[in-house]
Automatic annotation (TrEMBL):
Transmembrane segments: 56-76
Organism: Candidatus Accumulibacter phosphatis
Full protein name: DUF1269 domain-containing protein
Keywords, comma-separated and alphabetical: Membrane, Transmembrane, Transmembrane helix
Entry superkingdom: Bacteria
Pfam families: DUF1269
Length: 170
């Protein structure tokens, strides 16, 4: 099963992160299955910074430290083993690129105006009607997608439409 790429640009530096937080909440509710969700921010000076969903270097250091300590225990030097394992894990984690290609994201984000943000999402599957209802009125412009033309048009319509608040129940 292949994932769908969706790239949405926002006119400020914070909106993409806000929408990613909404998507992660929906993932906890099993409404969407995200393979990757990265926010690229182009600051006022034109510098692009990627905010990854997964911190691979930290995860690599943690797992490397565990395996290094275990091997170190076997050879009677757990601290040395843990230090070597953590270093090796951090390096391998930093060199591992899962999901969306970093160069692609940086190059695309660099083409936007300063002070903007871009949300890059790889979606494995989603309960479309519920996800679209949550995203209604969040703004943004669909820049690139692997969705069908009809799905892309529906997504853009939902993002651009005003969110209707329902009256509170008595």
């Amino acid at each position: 099963m292949s994932s769908n790429l969706v790239v949405i640009a926002y006119e400020d530096q914070f909106k993409a992160e806000e929408v990613r937080t909404m998507l992660r909440k929906m993932q906890q509710e099993y409404l969407i299955d995200l393979e990757d969700a990265v926010v690229a921010v182009k600051d006022d000076k034109g510098k692009v910074k990627l905010h990854q969903m997964y911190k691979l270097a930290a995860a690599g250091a943690l797992s490397g430290g565990f395996w290094g300590a275990l091997i170190g225990l076997i050879f009677m030097s757990p601290l040395l083993g843990m230090a070597v394992g953590a270093s090796a894990g951090a390096v391998s984690g930093a060199l591992t690129d899962v999901g969306i290609n970093d160069d692609f994201m940086k190059n695309l984000a660099a083409s936007f105006q300063n002070g903007t943000s871009v949300l890059f999402v790889l979606v494995r599957k989603a309960t479309a009607d519920k996800v679209l209802a949550e995203l209604q009125g969040t703004g943004g412009k669909v820049i690139k997608t692997s969705l069908t033309h009809d799905e892309e048009a529906k997504l853009q319509e939902v993002l651009s439409s005003a969110k209707v608040e329902l009256p509170a129940a008595d």
